[in-house]
Amino acid sequence: MLGFASVVLAVWAFLKCAAQFPVQVPNTYPHAYPGMPQTAYGPDWQNYFEVTDTLPNVTFPLARNFAGNVGVNRADHPNATLFFWGFEKLNGSLTDVASETDPWIIWLNGGPGSSSMIGLMTENGLLQVTGNFSIVENEFSWHKLADTFWVDQPVGTGYATSDDTGYVPDEDQLGRDFVEFLSNIVAIFPSLASRPLYLAGESYAGVYIASLFFILPPEILTTCTQPYITKAIFSTPNPPVRLAKIAIGDGIIGDDTTHRVLPIVCALLLRSVVSQHICKAHCVQAPRRHISVYLRLPPSTICLPGQTYVYRDM
Ligand SMILES: *[C@@H]1O[C@H](CO)[C@@H](O)[C@H](O)[C@H]1NC(C)=O
Ligand SMILES: *[C@@H]1O[C@H](CO)[C@@H](O)[C@H](O)[C@H]1NC(C)=O
Ligand SMILES: *[C@@H]1O[C@H](CO)[C@@H](O)[C@H](O)[C@H]1NC(C)=O
Ligand SMILES: *[C@@H]1O[C@H](CO)[C@@H](O)[C@H](O)[C@H]1NC(C)=O
Predict the structure, then answer these.
(1) Going by CA atoms, what residue is nearest to atom 14 of ligand 2?
(2) Which class for 217: exposed (0-12), middle (13-18), buried (19 or more C-beta within 10 A)?
């Protein structure tokens, strides 16, 4: 009886929760600071984006860095922007057009809907915010390997902005926005057009960046509904960047079904005594054919079961 009551309670709680959606999302606007160029994006925007003010609680010298909101070229949503904060490996390495062969890195946090400032300020960036809000230098910051951009996306995430009807309805829009953002970033920092891009991220950024499909030929990429940035880059006739490598840490790469049968999930769950019964249930009940169908390399040429999140509802 108790079990039944719990189920009823859980269903009631779920319905109550679901009834609150969709939530009203706000308008957010990119801030126009003094001196904003009135021209189309180009190298003359570098000065505008260069961070020259001293930052609160930063007591050590910073690598030369650039930050701001850059549009995603959606005609009906002029305030749809992504936010970037880019740090140079060497003084001038981002603005010097001669650095054609040097790689550059983009880092994305996951969520969906997590700001990549989390990565910049608590994980792999130069500025590490401590528990008492002082800031210490991370000597292992990734910008020491290559010019690195931490990017808030999709629109409306973190410092990225959107008007209330401009939020992405699915990850195909997310991918298109990201490619348009890249075309503008490349207009501002022209050397990035030819330099090898290492697109990296963690957690849900695995879905943003790629599922196993990233190595599929374009004709299949364009027919799959599976969402991500690499798909958008590869299905753009003249992509603005040269994607060289991707890296995904603790990533989601497929859909729920796929993850349910990932052997690694069981390995992780087994570490917790409480979760052992969950693990057993998953492993015993998992249709094992999913492993052979969805988790082989090269991947099967069919689409994974679709998973398109509606961000508004999350
Ligand atoms: C864009 O943002 C500006 C404020 O910077 C605002 O005045 C304008 O109405 C916004 N446009 C749209 C279409 O939301
Ligand atoms: C970078 O180089 C410029 C010009 O050579 C110099 O004025 C500036 O102080 C340097 N910045 C850093 C962070 O070293
Ligand atoms: C803040 O935390 C850091 C790192 O834990 C420590 O070194 C520093 O002394 C603390 N500062 C203050 C004002 O408590
Ligand atoms: C700067 O650090 C101190 C602790 O060292 C903290 O109390 C203060 O809130 C921080 N200031 C900002 C702007 O974060």
Answers:
(1) 91
(2) exposed
64 Cβ inside 6 Å of ligand 2: yes
What is the average per-residue pLDDT within 46-66? 96
Q: List for the chain the helix, strand, coil content (%; round to 5).
A: 35, 15, 50
Q: What is the pLDDT of residues 95-145, one digit of tens each?
A: 987 777 899 999 999 988 899 999 999 999 999 999 999 999 999 999 999
**Mode of pairing for the β-strands spanning 104-108 and 127-129:** unpaired
Calpha distance 51→58 (Å, rounded):
13
What average pLDDT is seen over the chain? Answer: 76
Write the residue with the smallest CA distance to atom 3 of ligand 2: 91
Report how far ligand 3's centroid is from the alpha carbon of 58 (Å).
13
Q: How far is the centre of ligand 1, averaged over its atoms, from the C-alpha of 28 (Å)?
A: 8
Q: Tell me, in angstroms, the distance from the centre of ligand 3 to residue 130's CA.
A: 7
Per-residue pLDDT tens digits for 282-292:
444 444 545 45
pLDDT at 256: 56
The ligand 1 site (C-beta within 6 Å) comprises 27, 29, 78-79, 163
Cis peptide before 26 (omega within 30 of 0): no
Once rounded to an integer, what is the mean pLDDT over residues 209-233? 53
Q: Coil, strand or helix: which one is 84?
A: strand
Provide the residue type at 245 as one letter. K
Q: What is the Cα–Cα distance from 107 to 116, expressed in whole angstroms?
A: 7
